[in-house]
Amino acid sequence: MCTVLGMSIGHALLGLLEKEPRHGYDLKRSYDERFGKDRPLHYGQVYSTLSRLLRNGLIEELGVESGGGPDRKRYTITDAGVTDVEQWLGTPEKPDLYLQNTLYTKVVLALLSGRDAADVLDTQRAAHLRAMRELTERKRSGDLADQLICDHALFHLEADLRWLELTAARLDDLAGKVRP
């Protein structure tokens, strides 16, 4: 299924359909309110995902309603769709281990090229702190869902900052290991 930042759009739409049948427009609006504040779905994503769910027997059309605008198809989840959501919810997400990340690569390349790796770390630290200030402000003014999303991001940034500090303290040792 299509994913946005690791989340399956199809499973999110199926989960939203479990509560009640909906139109594509309603699903997009509900998704954006709950999950898409930073990355709202495009209508094309919604309708291509609905088409795929329909083709796979996870949803079905309840009918078409006419109104002031274009006709609207109403969708409902099938038993197979409910089972699919249950399996997805019960499957743990793979933890991201970051064993080889871009920042580490930049530090090593700075050392190899004779550049100041501490500058690379300082620049990244400043960017992380700026992002943390923005997230903290957003968290203060946000609803509970926004607060939880911000906490998740803040905890990851804090872990990155600990790594930045540890790496800065070990730069001389690292330089001795990576330089020929």
Automatic annotation (TrEMBL):
Ranges of residues in domain Transcription regulator PadR N-terminal: 13-84
InterPro entries according to UniProt: Tscrpt_reg_PadR_N, WH-like_DNA-bd_sf, WH_DNA-bd_sf
Pfam families linked: PadR
Protein name according to UniProt: PadR family transcriptional regulator
Lineage: Bacteria, Bacillati, Actinomycetota, Actinomycetes, Pseudonocardiales
